[in-house]
Q: What sequence folds into this?
């Protein structure tokens, strides 16, 4: 902590080939640029070092690429140990067969300590600097995860999950009152304990949450002013089930919105939105709901392809999620290229009028798109919080002379674990 | 070479959890099994060490997984330095914009040395033990690549590319006679030079090869008894072009078959087969044509999704290709999971009667399916050539206790570069 304080007390100057997205989702590139931060806040990127900073040590990364830290808008920490297998089922069966039994083990703090340590260590090594994380229903294990996250230097929202119906006995809250009391205790404890680790309300998804529970979560949201995260329109069977459970609503989104949990009051992130129709998209737009696009999970669970081009055309709020363990990979490099690849299949097989995502757009989603959930995050303008990655191409030699854009694209596609050489979060260097 | 001879002169005994595919594409698993080779030939996998091998040193890998080496049925070595960028174009434009100008540089041996060294080094580190490789039109650079491959210990077919029409001046053979003469010189030189590195005839694809060139390649095939590799039905515009160029043929496959280059005499590998209709599939089946399924390339170039389930139902000969640089990744772990993911999108958007590939099937394709092009390769029965990988899970810790099948699936999905701890090719340990 002392080290962090120190770091924030004098300007940070990083020199390299600096790249970020402007608001039109186009690259801004400054070769040999000076990226300057003070007290964790970006002061801008300059072609020459401004006079006022002369004499201050420069961390000179030569020609290495420097890009904003990335935001993972949707990831399940307790599923990290289960990533990469059990890919033969669709959502609802997958949850019952693999996911729920595994999450139940996180009642035991010893198991949670093991699993969450692996997750947090790998998250630090990944290109992610910000994340919105699902824990489990277990208050103590969730606080343990938040302790590890706080220690890591990453900035996260983490949610104790709420679920009180259609859930197995071994992973179901005792009753609504207990669920809400524990949720409040968790919020109070976490609010006093952390600087970079914030609670987020996390009703699992409509099928798992009774109306009474949802109403209670709304009350907590209003009292504590917390954002919300959940799942939306991921799988066709799931959507049909929600329609049965909530016959009074015209779309899945309304099943959250009727309890003000769709962004109408505090911000809401909805993961997936693969099959959101016109009415739901209109509601998302009105409420400013964040879409966490999780392409690899949608592939692995055969959920389908989200209409990302449509979301961009509609100017929806959207970023990327890895959705481990629906997605196997924790890297947003991979999520970004998965998003491009999926959009090409959408173009081939669903709607040839919807152009595939470009690399610039995928870069935007991974950095500024998702980052905006955290405020002015994920780009390098004056006043932004300074999250930055210095990239290495050492592991991917080529005889070819490449443009800056080609070098960046290549790092995304090759998604080497070693690509992130140095990471800075809120101006603090993690490594 | 001495070291290799020595290695082949005494039995090789590897102990671990041994896994391979049977002919029904199902796992065979022997925990604590002894995989035994003599003179590079598999003697079988045994639950207890047979008496005749007692006293011979055992390489004991404890509980580590031991699987067959994998076969990459389609990869372009000179495109390796260009992988991972320029993914915004479809096939024909992509070739003209990125690929052809890059391949032209391989005329210069110094450039070829740099590029091919990187390729071969990475191929050795990958799970591939066998590969069918496209070089360029340049004879000397192709021999240079083959020198590096021979040195590596991998077993490969490598082709000097033929192309004499619809090609840019800077990457086009001078005339048919020169093309054929150089091809023969290359074959003769390479036949005298290598043990593990074999020539394969490589007409680039129908649009690049005149009828006269194709006839000449047929004559060479008949004289030298060489297999053939090319491209087939990858992209809709390409297919339409072939239809214009060869109005006498009813499908793209016939444009090869009319010159006996579709497997009717010597074996042929056709990459992609994304849009092969009934007539073409029937011809492939009759000719025993090998399909190199290259899922990631088909994604990146928005070519479409090959009907892999149909090919399996038809008992076509089929394996996987990375198709670098249409595909960005050289790892067949990744190609196998890409194939599963693509098959799920095929199921979602093209034909819900075609079940997605299972992990067992993808494993089969990566090992035994493609390996069979090289003979009895890619599995562990008595008489097979012994290519094996010892896998490491050190980089992917989990608190969960996993089954053997889950461990294997996880290695494929997480595709860590460090997963291949030891590699054996024809009984020789490369590392």
A:
């Amino acid at each position: 902590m002392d080290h962090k304080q120190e770091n924030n007390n004098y300007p940070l100057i990083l020199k390299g080939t600096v790249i970020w997205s402007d608001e039109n989702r186009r690259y801004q590139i400054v070769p040999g640029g000076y990226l300057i931060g003070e007290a964790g806040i970006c002061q801008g990127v300059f072609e020459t070092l401004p006079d006022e900073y002369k004499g201050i040590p420069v961390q000179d990364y030569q020609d290495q690429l420097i890009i904003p830290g990335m935001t993972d808008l949707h990831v399940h920490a307790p599923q990290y140990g289960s990533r990469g297998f059990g890919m033969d089922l669709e959502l609802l069966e997958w949850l019952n067969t693999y996911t729920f039994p595994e999450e139940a083990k996180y009642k035991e703090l010893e198991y949670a300590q093991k699993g969450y340590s692996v997750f947090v260590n790998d998250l630090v090594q990944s290109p992610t600097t910000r994340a919105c994380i699902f824990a489990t229903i277990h208050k103590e294990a969730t606080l343990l995860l938040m302790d590890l996250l706080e220690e890591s230097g990453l900035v996260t929202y983490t949610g104790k999950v709420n679920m009180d119906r259609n859930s197995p006995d071994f992973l179901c809250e005792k009753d609504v009152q207990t669920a809400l009391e524990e949720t409040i205790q968790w919020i109070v404890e976490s609010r006093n304990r952390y600087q970079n680790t914030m609670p987020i309300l996390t009703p699992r998804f409509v099928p798992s949450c009774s109306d009474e529970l949802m109403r209670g979560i709304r009350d907590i949201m209003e009292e504590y002013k917390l954002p919300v995260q959940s799942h939306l329109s991921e799988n066709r069977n799931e959507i049909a089930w929600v329609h049965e459970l909530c016959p009074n609503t015209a779309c899945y989104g309304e099943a959250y919105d009727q309890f003000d949990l769709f962004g109408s009051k505090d911000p809401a992130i909805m993961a997936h939105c693969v099959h959101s129709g016109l009415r739901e998209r209109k509601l998302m737009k009105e409420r400013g709901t964040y879409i966490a696009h999780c392409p690899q999970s949608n592939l692995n669970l055969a959920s389908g392809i989200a209409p990302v081009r449509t979301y961009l055309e509609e100017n929806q709020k959207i970023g990327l999620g890895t959705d481990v363990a629906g997605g196997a990979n924790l890297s947003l490099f991979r999520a970004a290229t998965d998003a491009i690849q999926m959009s090409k299949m959408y173009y081939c097989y669903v709607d040839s009028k919807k152009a595939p995502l470009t690399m610039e757009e995928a870069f935007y989603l991974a950095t500024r798109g998702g980052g905006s959930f955290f405020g002015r995050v994920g780009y390098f303008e004056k006043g932004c919080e300074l999250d930055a990655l210095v990239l290495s191409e050492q592991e991917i030699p080529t005889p070819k002379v490449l443009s800056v854009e080609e070098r960046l694209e290549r790092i995304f596609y090759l998604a080497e674990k070693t690509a992130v050489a140095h990471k800075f979060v809120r101006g603090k260097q993690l490594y």
Confidence is low (pLDDT under 50) at residues 1-6 of chain B. Chain B touches chain A through 54 residues (CB under 8 Å). The CA atoms of residues 39 and 335 of chain B lie 31 Å apart.
